[in-house]
Amino acid sequence: MDNNRIIIFDTTLRDGEQSPGASMNTEEKIKIAIQLQKLGVDVIEAGFAAASPGDFDAISQIASAIDKSTICSLARATENDIKQAGLAIAKAKRKRIHTFIATSPIHMEHKLKMAPDKVVQKAIEAVTYAKTFVDDVEFSLEDAGRSEMSFMKEVVDAVIGAGAKTINLPDTVGYRFPDEIKAMVAELHKFINGRAVISLHNHNDLGLGVANTLAGITAGARQVECTINGLGERAGNAAMEEIVMAIKTRKDLFDGLYTSINTKEIYTTSKLVATITGIEPQPNKAIVGKNAFAHESGIHQDGMLKCQETYEIMKPSDIGLDKNNSIVLGKHSGRAAFKDKIKQLGFDDISDEDLQTAFDKFKVLADKKKEITDDDISILITDESLNKNKVYELVSLQIADCSNGMASAAVCIKYNDELIQDAAVGDGTIDAIFKTIDRITGYKGELNDYSVKAVSEGKDALAKVVCKVTFNSDNPPMIGHGLSLDTMLASGRAYLGALNSYLSMKDSLRSKSNPHQV
Ligand code: KIV
Ligand code: ZN
After folding, report:
1. 201 ligand 1 Cβ < 6 A
2. CATH classification number, 392-509, choose in 3.40.50.150, 3.20.10.10, 3.30.160.270, 3.30.1050.10
3. Whose CA is nearest to atom 5 of ligand 1?
4. Which of these, 290, 250, 293, 287, lies nearest to 266 by C-alpha position?
5. What atom of ligand 1 comes closest to residue 100's alpha carbon?
6. In Å, what is the CA distance from 125 to each residue of 4, 128, 138, 161, 357?
7. Residue 16: CB within 6 Å of ligand 1?
8. N or C: which end of the chain has fewer CB within 10 A?
9. H/E stretch holding 37
10. Which of 14, 181, 203, 234 to mutate to test the pocket of ligand 1 (most atoms within 8 A of CB)?
């Protein structure tokens, strides 16, 4: 193994999905996994197979769809979890099981209620069993950040003896400071002495996830676990884009170390994850925030005009961001120019059918919106690909506001080539639209979250609505996306998008039900 290479282990689809409100359906996860592979991620943690039939299904579909990155499933140190993980990743070309047990006194005593000896035994059994499915087994000492060094050495020795190839040291609660992580890694690096790769997994509770990860790399860690946009449990995980760009920008401090990431795919990946999860990075977020390359003050702008390096340590183009976001196409542009443009924007694997649908939508948009930017086109295509499985499709809607706060909506929906119309009243226009959709489809959704945002520039910007809707309390809420110049139409589309996702998830589980699931 090349000792200068930092293995990028992305856990957006597992730890990232544990961000409150970030649950994704199978199709969305596959889309992200394909983009992560394009980005150059070494290992994709695709989920936690034993968590639910939906997770199992998503991991196994990702395992079939991805051929370059290693596909990994998380598993607690139990027989059933490991078996589910092994089965879910079975079809992957490159596969890994990631099993873990907590090693800190506080977790062993209060959560596991297990004596340290028993924890060691469980860890050995877990790795030994995982090895019957795959050769590539990673072991995590959960809450390593608060574990005792002597006990960690005992566990590390035992699991390496059982065949673990990667030892992950999570700072599960984001408690440690960079110097402490550096000292911990340095000691374990010496102890492990090349018998396994040391990995870091730092949470961001004190805002130190990335700093801790970089400090650990300088002490010998050669795998980093991270997420796009820093998504993850609570305050999130170390953000991949920050780690990668720090190593690239400060080569002088990392002495020949490198990652396999194609940094020009960072911006597209960040946008895709934000669109799918509905969680936008804060505007001042490093690397991918809206303001990360914006220069507001006159002095800075003057400096930038004279020499870009006066106020920029990285170029926007390094992360694939075209700052000019030029006005590209208008209503007279043809299909060939449109096709050319979407290739330039990185959508090179679009099918002819999807291209035609996107082009039709572009024409409708170009009729209403004066200036069509790169962003408009990217958003249009991403939205189209997220709303492909349309059991129900919104055709039109009409709203009437009543003075007493009530509103009524008349909605027309296409279902199996049939047009169905109905109307209902509600507490406000959005409620009236959703109630009418419920009446037409026969599914009653409970709206958990609703957001509307202008997603492109100008007065006539596109409105993007994201809805989270629960259709059955036994299933997680479904996310729907709707895009239109008209917020009401976007809302109706988003609500129907959530319903379509729900129906497609039910379908997929019915046809691929996992006989091994307990
Ligand atoms: O934060 C953590 O400890 C984890 C482990 C399961 C790796 O996510
Ligand atoms: Zn974690």
Report:
1. yes
2. 3.30.160.270
3. 142
4. 287
5. 6
6. 32, 5, 13, 11, 52
7. no
8. C
9. helix 26-39
10. 203
CA 225 vs. chain centroid, Å, equals 13
Quickly list DSSP for 257-292: -B----GGGHHHHHHHHHHHH--PPPTT-TTTSTTT
Per-residue pLDDT of the chain (518 residues; tens, 9 = 90+): 789 999 999 999 999 998 877 778 888 899 999 999 999 999 999 999 999 888 999 999 999 999 999 999 999 999 999 999 999 999 999 999 999 999 999 999 999 999 999 999 999 999 999 999 999 999 999 999 999 999 999 999 999 999 999 999 999 999 999 999 999 999 999 999 999 999 999 999 999 999 999 999 999 999 999 999 999 999 999 999 999 999 999 999 999 999 999 999 999 999 999 988 878 899 999 999 989 998 777 777 777 788 888 888 999 999 998 765 555 677 788 888 888 888 777 777 778 888 888 888 888 888 877 778 777 887 788 777 766 668 999 999 999 877 677 899 999 999 988 999 999 999 999 999 999 999 999 999 999 989 888 776 666 778 888 888 999 988 878 888 888 889 999 999 999 999 998 898 787 767 655 433 33
HEC sequence for 289-304: CCCCCCCCCHHHHHHH
Ligand that comes closest to the CA of residue 200 = 1
CA–centroid distance, 19 to ligand 1, in Å, is 13
Assigned CATH topology for domain 5-277:
TIM Barrel (3.20.20)
Domain extents in the chain: 5-277, 392-509
CA of 226 to the centre of ligand 2 (A): 9
